[in-house]
Amino acid sequence: MLEIGAYHKMIIDRDMSPGLYLRNEEDDEVLLPGKYAPANFELEDPIDVFVYLDNEERPVATTLKPFIEKDSFAFLRCTEVTGIGAFVDWGIDKELLVPYSNQMTTMKADESYVVYMYLDEKSGRLVGSTKTPQFTHNEDIEVKKFDKVDLLVSHYSDHGANVIINGKYMGLVFKDAIFEDLRVGDQLPGYIKWVRDDNKIDVVLQPEGYKGIEPNAKYIMEELQANDGQLMLSDKSSPEAIQAQLGISKKSFKKAIGVLYKERHIVIEKDSIHLTSKQ
Fold first, then answer.
1. At what angle do helices 239-246 and 215-226 cross, to 10 degrees?
2. What is the DSSP string of 9-42?
3. I need a labelling partner for 264 at 20 to 30 A (CA). Which of 14, 68, 73, 247 fits?
4. What is the pLDDT of residue 30?
5. Which helix (H) or strand (E) holds 99?
6. Are 83 and 129 in the same domain?
C-alpha cells in the first residue's frame, strides 16, 4: 500500500490521457498527472514522486518537492482561514488544513507558523498542527552533551526559545544564552549543553568551552594538555620563540591566549601560561 505524505520510487507503467500511471514492486498504482510528467521518458523508467491525496481524496503523485513530509515539522505560511480551520501552503496544489482544534494560537492569514503534518487515522487525510510540543518525544534520547544538532525554533516562553531538535525532541535555549536575532521558524545548528535527569534538554547555539573557540586557541589548549598543562611562553615572549615552539605568529598567539584567558581556561604568568585548576 502506498504511504500517503511520503516519497516513493515508482516505475512508469503506461502513458494515458490523464497522465502517467506508475506502479511499485507491490503493484500499487498511482497517477502522475500529465503536467508533472518528465519531458522525456520511456515506459519502465524509474521515477521518484511524492504521494498525497487530491481534492477528491484519491492518491495522486507529483514530482514537486513539498516543504514538509508526513511526521515532520516545517515553517509554513497560512494562506486562508475558513470555518473549519486554517490552510497553509506546503508547496503543492492542494493546501494543508490545520483544524481549529490543532491550533496552539488562532492562526491568521499571511502569517507563518511551525506546523507538524501527520495522517489523521479517522479521516485518512493529511492534517497539520501547530501544537508542536505534543509531537516531540523526549524519551529514549539519542543525543548527548556537546553533540551538534539541527534546530527549528518552535516558540518562545518566559525562559527562552523552545527548539525542536533533529525533528524529534523538544529543547530550550535559555534567553541569557541567545546573542543573536532568533525568530520562530529559524533553522540553524546548535549544540547539546545538557540532558537533564527529567529528559529536558538544554541547548546552546555555540560549542561550549574550548571546543568552540577559534582554531589557534584550540591548538594551544591541546599543546598545554600534551605538556602537563604548561607552556614556557607568554604575551611577553619573542615572535621567534613563539614561532619556533608553536609555528604561529605572535599576533595569532596573543589573540588565542586572550580568548583562553577570557574563558578562564588559562592563567598567564610573566614567562609562561598554564591551565586553570578547572581543566
1. 70
2. EEEEEEEETTEEEEE-TT--EEEEEGGGS-SS--
3. 247
4. 97
5. strand 96-99
6. yes
